[in-house]
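Loading example: each entry is read as two labelled lines plus one structure line.
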Amino acid sequence: MQEEDPISVALKQEEDAAPNEAPRLSVLQWLRSNLFSNWANAILTLLGALAAFLMLRGVLNFVFSENREWVAVRTNLRALMTLSYPESQYVRVWVALGFVVGLAGLSAGIWSDWGGLPIRRLATWFMGIGGLIALCVVVREPSVLMDSEGKALSTLEGSLQRESFGAAMADRVDWWIAALVLFTVGAVLWSRYSSVQRRHVELPITSIVYVGIGIAILTLWVVPYGHYAFVDGTYIAESGTTVAFSTQMPWTVMWVLLGLGFLVGRFLRSSQYVGMSKTGSNLLWLICPFALFWVVLRDPALDYGHVMSTDLPMGLAFGLLGAGALWLLTRSDIGEAGRIAATLLLIFAIFNWVAAFFGWYPMLQKARISFLLLAFAALLAPNFIGDIAKRRQLVLGWVGVMALVHYLATMINTPSTVDLQSDEFLGGLGLTLFVAVIVVVLSFPLGVLLALGRTSKFPIFRMLSTSYIEIIRGVPLISVLIFFSVMVPLFLPDGMELAELAAVLTGYTLFSAAYLAENVRGGLQSITKGQYEAADAIGLTSAQRTGFIVLPQALTVSIPQLVGQVISSFKETSLLAIIGLFDFLRVANSVIPAQSEFMGVKREGILVVAMIYFFFNFIISKYSQRLERRVGLGER
Amino acid sequence: MAINSPPSIHHERPPLYRDVTVVKWVVQIVALLLTLGALWFLANQAGDNLRASNVPTDYDFLSVNPGIDLSSGIDTDPDTGGRALWVGMVNTLRMAIAGILVATILGVIVGLARLSNNWLLKKIGTVFVETLRNVPLLVQILFYGAVFASLDRVTAEVGPINGWLHISNKGLSMPRAHIADGFYQWVIVLLVGLVVANFLRKRRIAQQDVTGEETYPILSAFGLMVVVAVIGWFIHPIFGFIGGIFEALSALVSSIPETALQFVIGALCLGTSAYWIRGFLNSRRTPAGLAKLTDDDYFRMIFAAVGGVVGAFFFLVLWPGLSSWMINSTSDLFEVLGNKFGNGRSGRPLDVDLPNIVQTGKFPNYGPSGLNFSIGFAAVFFGVVFYTAAFIAEIVRGGILAVPKGQTEAAASLGLRRSTALRRVIIPQALRVMLPPLGNQYLNLTKNTSLAIAVGYSDIVQVGQTVYNQTGKTLPVVSIWMFFYLSCSLSISVIVNFFNVRMKIVER
């Protein structure tokens, strides 16, 4: 590997460095060596402690202040997640979520091998969290005194009246208990597992995580979190009760589904079908964003007459005739004629799109897409010439792709039956996740193509992809998005329309592809010349060389950068809020503050949004570090 | 093609549609034509649609009063659209430059904190980096904006230091140092001083090399600069004659005939392609004479020649206005410079105004004399600074970790002090690794300032959006954005590359 960025190498080595078996230090020794080794260090420690104290106090005072209206967020949780998805159809959201959760459990069962967590480590976490809670309780300033009507009392000069420090500590007795319980549990575990034989007893991480999630969900049934919601526009606020049944039940089902999926996955892993189930779960992940969004959430009203007369015959025709054509094209005696036929097919497929723009002859969009796909398959056909099993691979793959494409195209073209209250069909976190996933999925092939173009030996292709990448990377995303949401309608010929979401998705994808291409290019440059020469030496065609030798290695090398790109794509979905779509940031920033009950309550919602983004990104980045270690990057 | 080659090879030439070179170039040219055709078609379509909706695509709005007020900037009530966009550009650049400076300082501090052997500092640094880089910038900006908007209302006694520093829900107001009359002449004095100081520094270094004594070259050059600056403060009006030179230049440029420039541009196009072809042929020249050229080489040369001719044709026939625009703008530039450096500017080069609070309508507000930062500015500024600093901290940490430990040990064994080793051995090597990603972060910061649109700070995107909402000229405004950001990106990468080349290890 010649071209790897030295900074990430250095950081990785730092992370990977095995923690030395440090000699056991007493508390005093540890303090001296880590915090007070000399006078400069001591001053830094004191300054740092002061800064940390002020920051913690500021955050706690902000979060627990009497002026915070967290009720606004609790009431609008559903709006933050799905905006105005109709109440009566809400089961669809749960079905979609359940599918994802079950699939996640299944994949975790098939793939995951998270190992164990030493109980002593768990014990230190318990003690640490207990100590942190105690620290927070002491650090937060005393609460404001309230009169009997719940109004804050203030002194004559206008400043707020606060209770005394002792009274504040006494008021927070429940927090003290929580801290004490956590600390005691931790301490007991620690001491019970401190003997030499039991020091390394471990619990499997998967079950810790599962039980943790389960405890969190089961408290919904017991703990009186209060019930706050907008039901059909009326504001319900009941403190002292548990949350509504319509929240408790689905989450419990999700938890059960997660466990079931995991068990099935574990069963498949030990069975003989492990390879097939790995492929299958990957395929399901690829399909599920499209299927869940357009089929489950959108609930298309199928017109069966049209399906029987047009959609089904067309899908069958493309599937079967295309399969026949591909079968012929993979005959071993096809020779030159195969390539010529594939090229002609490609020209015809491209011509269809040109004709569509000028309106020369009508053709269903999915027919155009199918012809294009068929042309690509035909171009790939020479790589599958061989025995029957090899030819069957291509043909069966083609039939599968056609079935999927035609099914989804039919569904997408059918109008939705969901009773929409706003222009956009989905909003909130759902929209954010949908856009992020679609952008990542669609920009990946485009980015790889651009990277190949930029590193190719064809000067014009190189020039075109380089200028595309550099222009896109030189302008901010927001201008690209505005360009696409405002300008795209201008570029289309009469009678052609593009929904705003589709226009924005196009902009996002094109933008993200340019960045992705740069990451893939880094990987491509790390492939040594010998690999190319070896591929040529065993007589691979250039498509085979790229697909089987170069790209697999290049993509493996660029996994960290690709994951980084996924994270930034996800972060960039927040820009949806600016261009007029209702993602969950927009809900927090302008929908909630506009409600008459919560006029101008902005900071709470934005803080929650920030925490959700943080949660996802932090998990992805930590996971990518593990993944990197597993594929053994930088160790060859 | 090759004449000398034996006929047997000639004989085995594949048919045209299987000839690698031909296919390769035909495919490329077809792809190029398709791309250009698609672009042309889309542009045409957009033109038709715009004409149909009665919004012609022209740049007239640049000289028409847009009737908009900007929230902040050098001119909050611009009298032309061009002026409004200019204010937006200045705001963007101001934000970007201030952001780059502060984010770099903060990022270096946090990066070093993460490397220190102090446990507490390390943890604080880690929390800073992990929190800030995992929360989207827009969310941070909106949050800071919401927090600042809930500060106290502005009054004369809002504090914290009345008359000097005010912080309120209208933003921050503090004393403003600004360029006054005579600044430009003073800069000339400083430039002269710089040349002399550089000369002094080199002499001192030479002296140090010869005698081995410590001569403090940097310190003495800096001292000289201070002396020159103080003297220049009083004597700068003598440089007023420079204005005349610039005015003469302006007259000279405007006397160039348009057609001459046009032909120069055309000739430049042709010359460039001829030069390239010559260089290409030279690179194929062997000691024995011109090497055999492959078909691929012929295609390249033909392509270069056609490109040159098309370029010349484009500038000569299709776009003759370019040359007059170039002449006019260059002449204007020199005229403006002539004005700035002209005689009769004898005031102080710099001046300071204190903030004031005025009440014109119902509510008091900051007056124009202080340096005012609006809530929007503060929100975007803190957003981009914190966000970018988190990334810069990681770059700094990685860069220093990338220097092998042997370097530190070698420096120590030479008897260098720790600070000297850092300055002379570690940091130069770390900087070499850090520069390219650092440049990337500066680019990102500049582009990220466009999120100002969310909190209403008048950067170029926000002003542009207001302008096209008023006039409907979307396409021109978008083209100005693209042009502006591309030139920003280009200048930053040129600067970074310059340093990059300078820092590179000279390899044998």
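The radius of gyration of chain B is 30 Å.
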